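6,7-dimethyl-8-ribityllumazine synthase
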Amino acid sequence: MLAVTLAALPSLLLSPSVPATGSRARAAAVRMAGDGPSFGDLDGSTARIGIIKARWHPEMSDSLIAGAKEALAACGVKEENIVETEVPGSYELPLAARYMALSGSVDAILPVGILIKGDTYHFEAISDSVSSGLMSVGMQTGVPILFGVLTCMSEEQARVRSIGPGNHGPDWGRAAVEMALLRQSAVGGPKSKFFMGFGDSGEDDAKPMTRPAERIGF
Ligand code: RBF
């Protein structure tokens, strides 16, 4: 079984470099969406979700966000528990996500952006820094940050992943609810914050990240 999987790897890894166009690209995109994760019953009634939109390619980002919000509603997320803001482009998403995470107002954040490859190295530079920036915000703040950024080789690739049946927004919305609930279970409730140990937490229910006896090294 493993041998078969490994044998298939080279062609899987190589396939993105063969440009898929027209109906072949569309079929591939729809298949990719169909292969996404399954989500169990998600009770999002206490979840607070932030959405940050990058304003480039607005038709597509609006469609992704509409798809995500439909999924949030289907999970029972209350409209008043959805916080929305926007930034000029995807490059600005990580810092905005950090501000939102530090505000303590949300349990998970969905940054949404679309990066389309042009003629220069710009796309690679931005894609890498946005992706590692978002991961770093999640790791540093403890607030789950989803990866709602399409990094596409062409506008057509972006369209099939954002508009119509290949829209990734609904899966991102469900993933945001699941991660919000995971965070709540980790920190002990919808509005709990980790207290990192500097100064005053300002909240009666803030929990220390570690009890003194669990601290390592000092
Ligand atoms: N932002 C996006 O969200 N998607 C893009 O496809 C995109 N393409 C860009 C191409 C060029 C040549 C430049 C200069 C910027 C682009 N941006 C794009 C904007 C970028 O994320 C950022 O907002 C600006 O560079 C300002 O910091």
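thats it. The first strand starts at residue 49 and ends at 54. The first helix runs from residue 2 to 14. bye
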